[in-house]
Amino acid sequence: GSVSNTRAFELCAHVDPTLTLVEFTPELGRAIGAMWAEEAIKEVWRRRSNFQLLETVGTFLDKVDEIAQDEYVPTVDDVLLCRVRTSGLVEKRYNIHESRFVMLDVGGQRNERRKWLGFFEGVDAVIFVAALSEYDQVLFE
Known about the structure:
The chain is an alpha+beta fold and 141 residues long. The chain has seven helices and two strands, in the order H-H-H-H-H-H-E-E-H. 36% of the residues lie in helices and 11% in strands. The radius of gyration is 20 Å and the shape is elongated.
């Protein structure tokens, strides 16, 4: 990469990945954009099924300069493309046409599966949902 890309990589390398909230400045946006433009990064992206990279990341990286602006407001599509990994159990109850439904969203990782067993008593149906875009991904665990 160029000298400016070296600076971009240094700037991004100093972002703590454990932070929930990072000050996403236009400078950081430009640095991420410079990295995203690198051919080596594009090659990693093309091989993303070998890693745990969410399919929607590319959409956000394609518009990182826009996202980094102070006046940026997420679109409906941006919100729909976001994902929060399920940990533990999330329960939602629905009544549809006088039928009661209980949806249990459980984390799919191996360490989460032991939590499932207690929820199958009295169950009439089980629906497993998986993203079609993840059929060839390497298992996270």
